[in-house]
């Protein structure tokens, strides 16, 4: 999980990243990528080429951080499919930058939103603390 902390810390949120559990950290990475894509789209619409490029570059870095957390051995086909989606998302971000395409940014946004919603939906439940009754049984 250190790579995720490093990726998120590079985006300026070191304290939040170091305090986060692994599930929350991945959620934060999704949020970071989505925020950068939205900023890139705004910069694109404003004609700010430098900011667009910077925000797309940061979004690519975050997507790379998401891919770095995949456990291909334990995750099997699901992890492989996620890796392919992250590869696709990165390629589309490169293309969006090169072609100045808001539609491509929207496409990547939809992919990441769908993945984030699924990820949030599988959040592990925290273990319940033992009650006084159960601790004496």
Q: How far is the N terminus from the C terminus? A: 37 Å
CATH homologous superfamily classification: Flagellar protein FliS
Envelope shape: globular
Count the DSSP helices: 7
> What is the H/E order?
HHHHHHH
Radius of gyration: 18 Å
What's the quaternary structure here? single chain
CATH fold assignment:
Four Helix Bundle (Hemerythrin (Met), subunit A)
Secondary-structure-based class equals mainly alpha
CATH class: Mainly Alpha
Mean pLDDT: 85
Features:
137 residues, mainly alpha, Four Helix Bundle (Hemerythrin (Met), subunit A), 82% helix, 0% strand
Structure description:
By secondary structure, the protein is mainly alpha-helical. It has a single domain (2-121), classed as Flagellar protein FliS (Four Helix Bundle (Hemerythrin (Met), subunit A), Up-down Bundle). It is 82% helix and 0% strand. Helix 1 packs parallel to helix 3, helix 3 packs antiparallel against helix 4 and helix 4 (49-68) packs antiparallel against helix 5. It is globular and about 45 Å long. Residues 1-5 and 127-137 have low confidence and may be disordered.
Compile the SSE list and pairings:
Elements: H1 2-10, H2 14-19, H3 22-46, H4 49-68, H5 72-99, H6 102-121, H7 132-136
Helix pairs in contact: 1-3, 1-4, 3-4, 3-6, 4-5, 5-6
Brief write-up:
With 137 residues, the protein is mainly α. The chain has seven helices and no strands. The N terminus and C terminus are likely disordered.
